[in-house]
Amino acid sequence: MRIVVKVGTSTLAHAATGHLNIRHMEKLCKVLSDVKNAGHEVILVSSGAIGMGMGKLGLTRRPDTLPGKQAAAAVGQCELMYTYDKLFSEYNHTVAQLLLTASDINDDRRRENFTNTMNTLLDFHALPVVNENDTVATEQIVIGDNDTLGAVVAREVEADLYIILSDIDGLYTADPNKNPDARLIPLVSEITEELKATAGGSSGSLGTGGMVTKLEAAEIAVNAGCDMIITNGRDPYILYDIMDGKPVGTRFAARRKE
């Protein structure tokens, strides 16, 4: 299978400091390497540049200004890719960095160039690591969040499965932080307005997005014929369960092309 895995800042960095969560990142790279060794193609969409830049620069809080965020991202992206390169190299896998803005997706020629590069990297058995180009993205050319970015990547490369590793177990019938009777929804066959309204009530520390953005990402993925799963990334070993076909988190069933 061709798989896109999106990992959020909450999985990569310690919330209190913004510094790298070494244990989580090592486990993530180990499992993804094993998935590749099993014959699957893997694309990693990784958040964390601004957060890791904060830790590297010794900042105690996220910058308020756009230049401040872009500067933190510039520092953090170096740290992020250095770490991925080091960890994946231990398992004999080569990484490639791709930084995108909305212009790279919305312009037909640039989108074709991106898709051709991605397919060639996969042909070369490289592991692409994709992030939004936070150092240059502005409000006019920003994709928005990496949930959406991952869905767009999955659509453009015709992936079979898109996995969002977040800090929640999946989509619930209500906000589990506020309603003890909230139940996990294991399968979503159709994204309805009622479902969107339910997600609108779900709030938590979900990086730059939330459950609403995840549903928007799900619409992009399933409309492109790609299944999507939202699950908790606190233990990357959960990817093994997904690859074994076990019910994990919330699966959004793709709309199959006739």
How large is the share of residues in beta strands?
Answer: 15-25%
Trace the largest sheet across and list its strands. Answer: 3-4-2-1-5-7-8-6
Largest β-sheet summary: 8 strands, mixed
The span between the termini is 20 Å
Helicity range = 40-55%
Order of SSEs? EHHEHHEHHEHEEHHEHE
> What's the overall geometry?
globular
Q: Determine the structural class based on helices, strands and strand pairing.
A: alpha/beta
Enumerate the spans where pLDDT stays under 50 for 5 or more consecutive residues.
Answer: 201-209
| Number of strand elements | 8
Task: Report the mean per-residue pLDDT as an integer.
Answer: 86
Radius of gyration: 17 Å
SS element count, helices:
10
Describe this structure as you would to a colleague.
It is a single chain. The chain is an alpha/beta fold. It has 10 helices and 8 strands. The protein has helices spanning 9-12, 22-37, 49-57, 66-89, 102-106, 108-123, 146-156, 193-200, 211-223, 238-243; strands spanning 2-7, 41-46, 95-100, 127-132, 161-166, 187-188, 227-232, 250-252. An 8-stranded mixed beta sheet has the order 3-4-2-1-5-7-8-6, with helices on both faces. Helix 3 (49-57) packs across helix 4 (66-89) and helix 7 (146-156) packs parallel to helix 9. Mean pLDDT is 86; it is low at 201-209.
